[in-house]
């Protein structure tokens, strides 16, 4: 990794799917600059301001409304879980430079683990430090050994925001099985894309980052069949999340219209499972 450049900002060098973390960081930082911010993510804007990177490359993603709504819905689910389970563990998989731990600010009784590739965690350490109740784990989430470092004695909330799409279905199934075997009970929240969304965004994603979406889900019942342990308790199109009501009028109209057509409505679904 490069250090600070001539501007005083920090240079970073990430590859393929690792680079996509900058797209979500950019979306959350832009939201924070809006008069009616949804996430109020000061930390995301702070981090973006310290990085020397041409974020304008991601202008083709618009202002990132979809990513902001996705994050807000997941934040709400995590917050609800922690209210019910104040002694819980949180696993944030493929955390990137996500600032969820700052947005939610969990009580000291919660053990929070942010997990990502070693290269990503090295970048993350510039902005976060391990402390009591918060630990960064440097590992691919598909590796088999990292989970053994996580205590098993608490209910767990697993968050996988914008990450499972980069795995194969077999890798997703293996990950689900390891998690449900390791923890006695908990909840898991994640998003999936349908094949229409994967096809539509394939070329631009490849050109911008070199990354590729591998797992497409056209029927959420297919996910149910991946694990006998997991039970689906929520299934929300991102375009029908209640948090779209906080968007400017033109986007509320646009997303409302898109949600009338199955291919568009199911482009991104937000799911919660329990076991």
TrEMBL record:
The keyword Transferase applies. Gene3D superfamilies: Vaccinia Virus protein VP39 (3.40.50.150). Keywords: Methyltransferase, Transferase. InterPro entries: Ppm1/Ppm2/Tcmp, SAM-dependent_MTases_sf, TcmP-like. Pfam families: LCM (PF04072). The keyword Methyltransferase applies. Coiled coil: none annotated. This is O-methyltransferase involved in polyketide biosynthesis. It comes from Alicyclobacillus cycloheptanicus.
């Amino acid at each position: 990794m490069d250090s600070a450049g001539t501007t005083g900002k920090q240079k970073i060098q990430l590859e393929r799917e690792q680079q996509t973390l900058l797209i979500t960081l950019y979306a959350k930082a832009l939201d924070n600059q809006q008069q009616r911010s949804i996430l109020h993510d000061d930390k995301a804007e702070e981090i973006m301001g310290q990085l020397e990177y041409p974020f304008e490359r991601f202008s083709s993603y618009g202002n990132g409304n979809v990513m902001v709504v996705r994050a807000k819905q997941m934040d709400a689910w995590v917050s609800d879980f922690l209210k019910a389970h104040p002694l819980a563990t949180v696993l944030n998989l493929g955390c990137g430079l996500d600032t969820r731990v700052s947005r939610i600010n969990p009580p000291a009784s919660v053990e929070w683990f942010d997990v990502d590739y070693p290269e990503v965690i090295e970048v993350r350490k510039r902005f976060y430090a391990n402390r009591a109740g918060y630990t960064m784990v440097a590992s691919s989430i598909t590796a088999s050994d990292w989970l053994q470092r996580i205590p098993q004695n608490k209910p767990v909330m697993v968050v996988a925001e914008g990450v499972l799409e980069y795995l194969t279905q077999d890798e997703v199934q293996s990950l689900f099985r390891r998690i449900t075997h390791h923890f006695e009970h908990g909840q898991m929240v994640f998003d999936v894309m349908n094949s229409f969304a994967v096809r539509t965004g394939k070329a631009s994603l490849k050109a911008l980052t070199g990354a590729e979406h591998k797992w497409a889900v056209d029927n959420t019942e297919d996910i149910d069949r991946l694990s006998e342990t997991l039970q689906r308790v929520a299934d929300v199109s991102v375009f029908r999340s209640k948090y779209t009501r906080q968007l400017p009028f033109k986007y509320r109209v646009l997303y409302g219209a898109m949600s009338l057509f199955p291919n568009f409505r199911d482009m991104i679904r937000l799911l919660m499972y329990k076991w």
